[in-house]
Each structure stands twice: as C-alpha cells, then as structure tokens.
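Page 37, continued from 36.
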C-alpha cells in the first residue's frame, strides 16, 4: 500500500511555474552563470544537479561567488575531503561574519526566523 501511495504522490504534478517565473528565479540565473562560465548547456535543474554532484568543488566555488558571500579572509580550499561525508571541512581558511551576510541588503524583508521548541516563531 505504501508503494502505491508513493507512486501516486511522486507522479502527480501539483504545480509548475510559468516560463517567466522560471527565468526570473535565482536558480535560473545561477544556471545561466554556470553555462556561460563553463561552456555547459543546462536546461533544467536535473542537469545542474548532476553537474554539482560530478563537479563538487567547482559547483560550490561558483555558488560562493554567485551568492556574493562577503568575507574578511578568502577560503583556501573548497572542501578538504569529498569522500568524508559527513565530516568534511568546507571553505577552509575563510573568515566571514554571518550577520553581515544575512543583513547586507538592509531592506524590510525578514532576514532570520527563529522557531523555538514550542514552534512559536520570531522574526
């Protein structure tokens, strides 16, 4: 019974974004950035995902740049041991301030949401 339910849930598409919405997404912008820099031709998330698995260090280095992570000291290595999951050390040598990165836009949008044990949230 569980497999029947899983197959039904996995095969029924509930919503699909419009092409305009897709092309205005950060995911699409990132995919286009990767395509331009690495000469790839990713047309969808699945292709980008596979590239991220096959090119772990390049993917995360590119995402670091794309996300414009602010830092006081750059990283010297993206990952120390890709075969050590969990437990690998990411972005060795980097020094950054989380508050600076979370609050850098200084707009009126929520930057951080806290959920306590009771499930109550604070912004």
């Amino acid at each position: 019974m569980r497999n029947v339910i899983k197959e039904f849930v996995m095969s029924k598409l509930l919503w699909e974004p419009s092409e305009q919405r897709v092309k205005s997404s950060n995911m699409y912008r990132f995919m286009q950035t990767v395509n331009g820099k690495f000469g790839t031709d990713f047309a969808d998330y699945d292709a980008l995902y596979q590239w991220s698995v096959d090119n772990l260090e390049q993917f995360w280095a590119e995402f670091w740049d794309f996300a414009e992570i602010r830092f006081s000291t750059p990283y010297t290595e993206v990952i120390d041991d890709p075969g050590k999951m969990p437990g690998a050390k990411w972005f060795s040598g980097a020094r950054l301030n989380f508050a600076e990165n979370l609050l850098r836009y200084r707009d009126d949008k929520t930057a951080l949401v806290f959920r306590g044990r009771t499930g109550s949230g604070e912004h």
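Residues 26-38 form the longest helix (13 residues). Flag for discussion at group meeting. The chain has a mean pLDDT of 88.
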